[in-house]
Amino acid sequence: MKSYLVSKGDFLELIDGMIENGKEVVAPVKQENQANFKRIKSTKDILWSGPQTVISPKGFVFPQEEELIEYEVEDGIWVGSKVEAKSTVLLGIHPCDINGIALLDKVFAEKNLDENYLKKRESATIIGVECLTPCSPESFCYRKGSVLPWDGFDLFLTDVGDDFFVEVGSEAGKTLISGISRKTIQSDAKKLKKIREKRDNLFAKKQRKLKPKLEELPKLLKENYDSPIWDERGAKCFGCGSCNMVCPTCYCFDVRDCVEINLKKGSRSRFWDGCMLTDFTRIASGEIFREERGARLRHRTNRKDFYLFEKWGRTFCTGCGRCGKACLTKIVDPLDIENELYGRKGRR
Amino acid sequence: MEKPKVAFFEFTCCEGCQLTVLSLGDKLLDLFESVDVVNFREASSYRGQDYEIAFIEGSISTSKDIDRIREIRKKAKICVALGSCAHIAGVNAIKNFHNQLEVKKRVYGEKAWAFDSILAQPIDAVIKVDYVIPGCPIDKKEFLCVAASISNGVRPFIPEYSVCVECKMKGNVCVYHKPNPIVCMGPITRAGCGAACPSVGNACEGCRGLVSDPNLEAYEGVLEEHGISADDKMRFYRMYNGLVGGVK
Q1: Which pick of A230, A300, B125, B191 has the fewest CB atoms within 10 Å?
Q2: Does residue B156 lie within any of the structural domains?
């Protein structure tokens, strides 16, 4: 991977210039005592490190609500698909969320290419930033091997003082900084290595530990399919879906039609859905396949660290910790669940 | 295709849901294009008695209401409960949990005995209701979607999931997580309002009724954790959901 050095001042000037020219730049900004991704008017608005945003930035490539088809019924029927995107820069994205998008890239391009996702994804420039301190007490990205991006970024910045150490992930990224970058030399790489060692030590000390080995999670969950933990935790679950909504890797959606009141026009849209919701598995005749909250919790956990882990060879939980924070009854955090399963197994 | 004939009726309520329909702007004209409104007190003095779809606002709270709503049911092919008063009896049912004689006296004074007043009930306590548009007041977008679906002969979509879904989609900071947390009914309340109240920093008070399988035990644990007394808990539920099954 090519790397460069860019002075912070030059970089911010470059971005502010893009904003002035009308480019949509989205970045984390402060929102009450937390943060949210919003279109920014100036790089001064950017929140470079913690507190964490309430939800991940996945909505900019996979929107909460997205029209797929529109139709008109008047002297015949007209149906048109709607695949839209506008060029957007996603700036200040943390590794957990870059990795979330990298995983969505896999699933939305598997077999049936998801045109709506891919068009938005191709129109997005992702500029990540390394976290040098944990963003929340709930996060456990270090335990999920997610303190650095796996893939899916154009540029990745690390604060090394007056400059950003920039790793380049795409040609577009390289071109973007071509006017202000200089090649790194050995001493720069050394400096970066030192910063990362310090970061690793800090995260290892501050973040909650994952007791089982990361690569053994699929096996652990497989063995514990019938564990009483699911119903014990399920008893405290609202099935409110907060964990699904805040997750950077949840990608399920529902498709619904809406007819306009003139009955001449209508649209078909998709909406974020979640496996923790009661009606997620309801079928047309009314049956619900996964009615128990415990079974839904097991399914969600297995999707993150068993089924998709086995299928794609990577954990589908990037350790952002948002679900654990969002859950009012503190039952959903995957690390907590996995540690508990591991602990009980040990006692047997 | 002949336009379906539509009528609006009101029982005990503020008629705010009908006013919401009236404030649809351009879409109101579209509504009038696709349906024939024969009865709509907030909009017209015409009283048509021939209708297929009845939108019914308000709770049943007098014995006369019972006869009147049964007549409406006889005439209408489809009855739609409009808003929380019709759906779950809403704020009208607060009185049900007090001494009825005292309540009547407080409202009507010394001549209270002359007034016909019974326990407030949602309309489905008296008639079969085909569809519900929840909320206090109803949501404009949802009303249009449901009205269009019904006119089109399609089962309308009403979310079964909680307000938290829509609240999180917006990226709101959870009101339980703010520096001064407040208790919110979002986790057990039916969505569809776009998390209107939490989005402006207020608690959800459950005006759209509860989700189909609310985990009240877990919810009460959360209330307790936030120092809510048993009395306050009931007041909170009874704001809109005093009559909802499972709440006790």
Answers
A1: B125
A2: no
